[in-house]
Description:
Shape: globular
Distance between the termini: 28 Å
Low-confidence stretches: 61-79
Number of helices: 13
Amino acid sequence: MGPHSGALDFLSLPFHRGILKAHLVYRLESAFKNLSKSVGEGMYRRTAEDLRIARGNLVGGDENGARWFTWPPNMQLSPASSRGPDIGLPTNPNQLHELWSRLSAEEKDARYRADQFVGNRDGIPQRDRDKYNRQTLLMLREKAAREQNEDHIKVLDDIQKFLDSTEEGLPPHYLSYIDDKLRYAYTIGNPDTAHNVGIALVGALRRRSGVGYAQQSLKQLRQAALAVDPTKETSIVLWGAYDNPNSLVATLSSKPAEEGADALRRYHEGLRATHQGPPSHNTTIAHSYGGVLGGHSAGHGNALDTDELVFVGNWGAGVPNVGDLRLTGVDPAHISDHVYATMAQHDSIQLMPATHGPAPTDPEFNATVFGTDSTPSLTRLGWNPQDHLATNYFGSDNQSYRSLGLIMTGHGDMLR
């Protein structure tokens, strides 16, 4: 019996009503496809189109999602782009890094005056990205104050407090990306100088600033790596520079992942271009819907410039098998040795319809699977939404903590 068996009482919870509706739509579609041979072709096509429209309306206008998760209100979303206007800078990260390294401080400042989002361009070192993006943060704060946009003021103030915060034993925080839609990327430590770099991908429902997620999860991931190898510096990035889905129902669509994939690939290329000394060991950690983003970035004829790709609590990556993924510099014959997956037994995300292909933990996917501790809830079926949280997967009291540390420090072979 599959994970959905007998789960209707759990899906009736307010948090999951949208998913229950989604299941109904997809089951109708499946049932009608099975009847296609016994009905007329015209009727089949008309009904299939009606169901397709119904599914689109469900994903785009789910009331439960709008009520619980949408932020900011009535925000118009668009694909993220770090290319910016033409101000005489190349878009290729390696070419940009080469040119940028020859510019004087005055020439760099002039580029910033020409494009106040120049700090988002991949190929510019993290220290300069942080310098100019912090200036842009102030500009956006002043703009929000003039417009009396209280939502944006709150978010921008949260980001500023996070960047300015200090904690003993933690390296500085960097603002690696900020745009006028308040999409973001933060780092703990400088990935340009670190031996190990983890890139955590924002999944669904990461509203507002993402600061709460960053404060807890980035520290957990860094400590996981240091617990395995305290002699090597580790930097962790939280990459949220795309329009991540703002409801559970919206995660049924691959569109956000498809639109964010190109920007994510460029960001990874930029990390390689600006790194000082021997190449760092880079690990991309794709939690929840972040796994759909990771799968589309490394799949469908593309390659992601990372050494390891880890699917955490992901119910489908948008590809049927690890053989459809490519990591730059990894022999395709050994790809399964560099793609990892874990799923907590009682993680309720497993109740999602299989709209993105098999779960990476399925044997047919052929990833290297490692364990995660799981706690059943007190409900009859035991499904536990808390098990899906990054703080559970990344927590030091979970067996997955050490596994993630091994992978990030280049010792993932110990899990095989």
